[in-house]
Amino acid sequence: MAPRDPILGITEAFNADANPAKINLGVGVYYDDNGKVPLLDCVRRAESLMMEQSAPRTYLPIEGLAVYDKAVQELVFGADSPVIQEKRAITVQAVGGTGALKIGADFLKRFAPEGTEVFISDPSWENHRALFEGAGFTVNNYAYYDAATHGVNFEAMLADLKSMPQGAIVVLHACCHNPTGADLTSAQWDQVIAAVAERGLIPFLDMAYQGFGSGIAEDGAVVRRFVAAGGPLLVSNSFSKSFSLYGERVGALSIAAGSAEEAARVLSQLKRVVRTNYSNPPTHGGKVVATVLNTPELRQLWEAELAGMRVRIKQTRDSFVAKLRERAPAHDFEFVREQVGMFSYSGLTKQQVEQLRAESIYAVDTGRICVAALNSKNIDRVIDAIAKVL
Ligand SMILES: Cc1ncc(COP(=O)(O)O)c(C=O)c1O
Predict the structure, then answer these.
(1) Which residues touch 366 (CB under 8 Å, ≥6 apart)?
(2) What DSSP assignment string belongs to 17-74?
(3) How far is the centre of ligand 1, averaged over its atoms, from the C-alpha of 208 (Å)?
(4) Mean pLDDT (whole number) for 345-349
(5) 0.70 cut: is pTM over it?
(6) How far apart are the first and last CA of the chain?
(7) DSSP conformation class of 246
(8) How far is ligand 1, taken at its centre, from the CA of residue 390, in Å?
(9) pLDDT score of 323
C-alpha cells in the first residue's frame, strides 16, 4: 500500500465526523463567506456563451488551445514582455498547475545534464518533492521558513542558494507560499534573482495563486523581474484557485528561451512530453479561461471577482488576529496579518492541532490552516477553540 496523502487524510477524518458543527481548516481551496466553493460569475457567463455556440469536442492540439496559450502567456509574462516580442516565449496548456510542473519536470529530466538536482523550499507544497522525484530527480531542500519569527529565514535561504551546484533547478513560489503564507519582500527577490544568475541556476517559478497576494500584476511582477535578469526560466501557473475551476484542471507551463529558434526546439520537446503523458489537454476549462481572458467585459468581471476573494482573505486575517488578541491576549498572532494568500502556518503545534480535532476542528498537523475556510459564521467557534488549546 502506498502511504496516505496527509491532507486528503484530514478530509477523510472530517467527512467521517458526525458533529454538524465540524470545521475543516485543512483544505486547499477557497470558500466564500457562506462556506461554499464559489462558481464565479465570469465563468458562468463564459459557459453560457459557449453553450450558445455549442461546438463539437475534437482533440485540441498537443500544446493546447492557441487562444488560451496566447492569453495565458500575456498574463504570465505581461503583454509587452520582451520574451513575447522576441518570440522566445513558449506556453503550453497543462492539466492544472500540477500537470504544468510535471511536464516541466519531465522535460528537464530529459535534457538536464546527468546528476542535476532539484531544490525546493523547506517546507514546500507537499507534492513538489514527489513530483520531481517521480520524474527521476534527487530533490533537496533549501532553508525557507523560520518558526521562531513566523517568517522567512532569508539569510539561510540566500546562503543555500549561493552554495547550490551550478545548473541546479530551484523551485520558487512566485507568491502566496504554500504552506507557510510567508513571502519574500521585493528587496529579497532582488537578491534571489542575483544569486540565481550568479550560480547559473535554473529557476522554476510555481505560480498557483496569482491574484491572491497583492493583485494580478503585482503578484506576476516576479516573473517579469526574472525575465529582465535574462537566463532560462520556467513558470507553471494554475487557474484552479484564481478562477475557482479546481476540477476542470486548467493551468499552463511557460518557458522563456534564449532565442526564437531555441523556443521552437523547446516547444517540439514539450509536445513530445505531453504526447507521451496524456496526448493533449482537455477542452472545457481552457475554453472557459480563454473566453474570459479574451472578452474585455468578462475579464473585468474576473478581475473584480478575484479581488473580492483576495480582500475577503485579508479581512479574515485581520479579524482572526483581532479576535485572538481579545480571547488570548498572552499570545501574539500579529504575524498572521503579514502572511499572504490562502494559507497560514498558524504556529499551532501538532499536539494543539490534535486537541482542536477533539472539538471537530480540523487543521494540518504542521499547524497549517486555510484562512479562506474561515467565515463570519464559524470564526468565533474556531477562535474559542484555539484560545482553549493555547
Ligand atoms: C504551490 C502549489 N503548486 C501547485 C499546485 C497545483 O495546482 P493544481 O490544483 O492546479 O494542479 C498547488 C495546489 O494546491 C499549489 O499549492
Answers:
(1) 123, 179, 345, 350
(2) ---TT-EE----S---TTS-----HHHHHHHHHHHHH-----PPPTT--HHHHHHHHH
(3) 5
(4) 95
(5) yes
(6) 37
(7) G
(8) 31
(9) 97
Is pLDDT of 7 > 80? no
Closest residue by Cα to atom 7, ligand 1, is: 97
Catalytic residue among 102, 106, 125, 302: 125
Is the confidence at residue 69, as pLDDT, over 80?
yes
Atom of ligand 1 nearest to the CA of 124: 1
pLDDT by residue (tens digit) across 80-118? Answer: 999 999 999 999 999 999 999 999 999 999 999 999 999
Q: Which of 128, 134, 316, 120 is nearest to 212 (CA)?
A: 316
Cell 470558500, residue located: 31
CA 98 to centroid of ligand 1, rounded, Å: 6
- CA 193 to CA 186: how far, in whole Å? 11
3-class SS shares of the chain: helix, strand, coil, % to 5: 50, 15, 35
pLDDT one-digit tens code per residue, 261-273: 999 999 999 999 9
Report how far residue 95's alpha carbon sits from residue 295's, in angstroms, rounded to the nearest whole number. 23
342: which DSSP letter?
Answer: S
Share of the chain above pLDDT 90, in %: 96
Q: What mean pLDDT is reported for the chain?
A: 96
d(CA 212, CA 81): 22
In a 13 Å sphere around the CA of 180, the CA atoms on its Cβ side amount to: 23
C-alpha cell at position 338: 503579514
